[in-house]
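Morning. Coffee machine broken again, so started the prediction first thing and wrote up yesterday's gels while waiting. Chain of 227 residues, entered below exactly as on the submission form.
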Amino acid sequence: MDIKLFYTKQGNGPSLLLLHGNGEDGTYFVHQIKEFSRDFTVCAIDTRGHGKSPRGTAPFTISQFADDLLAFMDQQGLTQADILGFSDGGNIALTFALRHPDRVRRLILNGANLDPKGVKPLVQLSIVVGYHLASLFKSPKARAKAELLGLMVKEPRIDPAELKKLTMPVLVIAGTKDMIRERHTRLIANRIPNARLVLVPGDHFIANKTPSAFNRAMRQFLEEEFT
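Came back before lunch.
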């Protein structure tokens, strides 16, 4: 790892790691930090090239971000943690869990997708157009925007057949009007053994816009006894 990720840490108890979406930072989870720091040591991490985390020189890919997460846990001395990943953060969390299942106690996937086709067509079209427009310009700002949008154009690439390998408790949660196709969200939940699926009224950003309903579903999952 050629960088150190920026993070905020709050609370006491078992470790709960929060991974934000594309173009955001850890402050997205303001409502979850407030709620769950009462019972958990909550770390909201800024992904490489997002927020206050430097870009570094390593590849700007979901795979690299998963490697960054492993390095972060090693640096923090965390052998295992609960992980909540939203959108691209969910894709990072899923990639990480498939590679390092022993490091994930429980997994919450919010608005994640296995490939770009999991995004609703009109939304994905605007992302693709924005990516190609940004790619036409050579300024640092345009390059950075193209790199961010390129993540959603090219990634992730997760084979649904791989999901059967996940044996930790998993909550798949999305908005009823999410930018991820509902059938795609259901596919993810159906392919993960014993995963729980919750659909919360709202769009892609339910954790931030309707935190009471989101946090209630999340807390119910985290408080359940798994055998």
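The first strand starts at residue 7 and ends at 10. Going to sketch it on the whiteboard this afternoon.
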